[in-house]
Design brief:
Blueprint (H helix, E strand, L loop, with lengths): L4 E6 L5 H9 L7 E11 L2 E9 L4 E6 L7 E2 L2 E3 L1 H18 L2 E7 L7 H12 L3 E7 L3 H8 L4 E5 L8 H15 L1
Parallel strand pairs: 1-8, 1-9, 2-7, 7-8
Antiparallel strand pairs: 2-3, 3-4, 4-6, 5-6
Helix pairs in contact: 1-5, 2-3
Length: 178
């Protein structure tokens, strides 16, 4: 089967998002949609995380100072951001993109049912999917390992320099077939 879903995993701060940026920079003419997870800093202190679509719009989904019940680690998080902003951004990517970016899936997303369903819809769509997930997000790994159309790259200090070229080659092969 043709590999059309490509994911990176590894520990926190190992370079997954940096690799993804390097890869998508190699395809300036490809229509890319989707989202990235970005840290939110206040006074040079990481206070949360936000989803950012590739058009630059964003929405904070986790923050240390929020007064809500959903919590992972030190962060309180809002499921509605996954279910609304995340779903809408991925729907738009399905309609308008050749490659769907999902960077990155972690532990907070697990119980956001509509968002998880939308991710599976992206995995099943004809478009290429390039994404990353935290190594500890084993719930997401279980979704991916059963799929013959998916390749997972483990990013480590030893592998992170060679992975971009391997993925660029996979994307090139896929684009040539289609």
């Amino acid at each position: 089967m043709n590999i059309k879903n490509i994911f990176l995993t590894g520990t926190i701060h190992i370079g997954k998002s940096t690799i993804i940026t390097r890869i998508i920079d190699n395809f300036p003419n490809l229509r890319i949609g989707g989202l990235r997870t970005r840290p939110v800093y206040e006074n040079n202190i990481k206070k949360g995380f936000m989803f950012e679509s590739l058009d630059g719009t964003g929405k904070i989904f986790a923050h240390t100072d929020w007064k809500i019940n959903n919590q992972f680690d030190i962060y309180k998080f809002d499921y509605s951001v996954f279910e609304k902003f995340g779903v809408l951004t991925l729907q738009q990517a399905l309609l308008n993109s050749d490659l769907i970016l999902i960077d990155e899936i972690g532990m907070m997303e697990k119980q956001a049912d509509m968002f998880c369903q939308m991710i599976v819809k992206c995995l099943n769509a004809p478009q290429l999917v390039l994404g990353a997930f935290q190594k500890r997000a084993t719930w997401f790994l279980q979704i991916l390992i059963e799929r013959a159309d998916t390749k997972i790259f483990l990013v480590s200090e030893d592998t992170r320099d060679s992975i971009p070229d391997r993925i660029i080659s996979l994307i090139d092969q896929n684009l040539q077939k289609n």
